[in-house]
Amino acid sequence: MSPRKIIIDTDPGQDDAVAILLALASPEDVEVLGITAVAGNVPLPLTEKNARIVCEVAGRPDVKVFAGCDAPLIRPLVTAEHVHGKTGLDGPARPDPTMPLQDQHAVDFIIETLRTQPSDTITLCPLGPLTNIATAFQKAPDIVERVHQIVLMGGGFFEGGNITPSAEFNIYVDPEAAEVVFRSGVSIVMCPLDVTHKALTDRTWIEKMESLGTLAGHMVAGWTDFFERFDVAKYGSTGAPLHDPCVIAYLIDPKLFDGRFINVEIETKSDLTLGMTVADWWRVTDRKPNALFLNSVHRDGLFDLLSERIARL
Ligand code: RIB
Ligand code: CA
């Protein structure tokens, strides 16, 4: 089967970085048409720079990286330096990237790609706030029906939130954008905290990455080592949740995951629960299902896949 054509929309972020490496190491499964940076974990100038750093770590300076929206649709930007460090990609030091940033705005790249590629062949993979995707849908409504699928990291329900008691970061930063996406009618697969909090690194795996003796292995070990300290301190967990790599892993091997096709709505009004993904898991409403809500993962299978693919770089 030919590889899926994807656009990765991202706010690197150590976990975004591992997801990008997984995608670039898997050409038989995914063809990365471009990487679009969005403001999220850190401001846009850093997320676009970090995306290029990651491409260079993968030995892929040819990948087209675009800068997108630098703020949510209507709200001020909320960032997460407390999790990812002030660079957004704290861990082993890397030189500034030398590969170019594309001149075209990320939103225009998304629109142009969806208009020029055959309809129903492009998968959008948002790993951060949904601002770029929502802006593209609002600017060019004709592209919505041309999207094959959206596979995103975001939300949470039984697991609660990670930036507020009820909201996950990607959705919380731009709830209006999330509402546009979840009401678009596009086929959605979501990787919420309910599944990503089961995708935990451990010391054995981090040491295995370091033992690869490659730049990619060293960086993955360093990034996840840095990234885990926040979750270990907050949740008492035994490792870092690899949120964003779940998106790419799902594309490569969906059998690693399980979930339920349900209705998911976004809270955009209440200050108390702003950005909450209200998942009708028990189907107690007559709201139309609009997303495959993943809530389980074969953890060892996921990390075996990550080990095998990162070792290729
Ligand atoms: O809540 C986790 C998500 O927020 C991940 O995508 C992480 O990179 C941050 O963007
Ligand atoms: Ca992210």
Task: Please write out the topology.
Elements (H helix, E strand, L loop, with lengths): L3 E7 L3 H11 L5 E8 L6 H14 L7 E3 L13 H4 L21 H11 L5 E5 L4 H9 L7 E7 L15 H5 L1 H8 L5 E4 L1 H4 L6 H9 L3 H21 L9 H8 L4 E6 L1 E3 L10 E3 L11 E7 L1 H12 L3
Parallel strand pairs: 1-2, 1-4, 2-3, 4-5, 5-6, 6-10
Antiparallel strand pairs: 7-10, 8-9
Helix pairs in contact: 1-2, 1-10, 1-11, 4-5, 5-7, 9-10
The structure holds alpha-D-ribofuranose and calcium ion.
Calcium ion binds next to loops.
Ends: how far apart?
A: 23 Å
Rounded to an integer in angstroms, the radius of gyration calculated over CA atoms is 18 Å
Count the strands? Answer: 10
Shape: globular
- The DSSP helix count reads 12
Which regions are unreliable across 5 or more consecutive residues at pLDDT < 50?
A: none
Give the CATH topology.
Answer: Inosine-uridine Nucleoside N-ribohydrolase, Chain A
Under the CATH scheme, which architecture would be assigned?
Alpha-Beta Complex
What hetero molecules are bound to the protein chains?
alpha-D-ribofuranose, calcium ion
Helix proportion of residues, in percent? Answer: 25-40%
Overall pLDDT metric: 97
- The percentage of residues in β strands lies in 15-25%
- SSE succession: EHEHEHHEHEHHEHHHHEEEEH
Name of the CATH superfamily: Ribonucleoside hydrolase-like
